[in-house]
Design a protein that fits this description.
It contains 8 helices and no strands. The chain has 126 residues and is mainly α. The protein has one domain (5-121): Alpha Horseshoe (Serine Threonine Protein Phosphatase 5, Tetratricopeptide repeat), CATH 1.25.40.10.
């Protein structure tokens, strides 16, 4: 979350390879790395793995990836699974900052959430 993905992602991949049931947060950071590279398809694959944990950050990452891919239904469903009363539901930027994200990462995450929300709110094409 501090932006040193070139150092952290290989370590996470190694940990995933060595773990029978890796924790969801391992995939959060890899998904964010893909977001920073603009690779929404790869981000989605990691976010889907992370979403198995049921944590709201994983749902936010899945919504961002779906928004980047133009997948309205997945974005809407993921956003709907985030409790609006939770910190990430009320103030996602503060949530990300509290978990150590740099401002560059917070900006990318918030831009992605905004895109997902706009997509999810738009009526489907006829």
């Amino acid at each position: 979350m501090r932006g040193k993905f070139d150092e952290g992602v290989p370590l996470l991949r190694q940990a995933i390879d060595r773990t029978v049931d890796p924790p969801g947060w391992y995939f959060h950071l890899i998904a964010i790395d893909h977001l920073m590279k603009g690779d929404y398809a790869a981000m989605r694959r990691e976010a889907e793995r992370a979403a198995l944990s049921g944590r709201p950050i994983a749902e936010a990452l899945l919504a961002i990836a779906a928004g980047g891919l133009g997948d309205r239904e997945t974005a809407r469903a993921a956003l709907n699974r985030i409790d609006p009363g939770s910190l990430i539901g009320r103030d996602a930027a503060t949530y990300f900052r509290r978990h150590g994200a740099t401002e560059e990462i917070v900006t990318a995450l918030m831009d992605g959430l905004d895109r997902a929300r706009r997509l999810a709110a738009d009526p489907p094409p006829r």
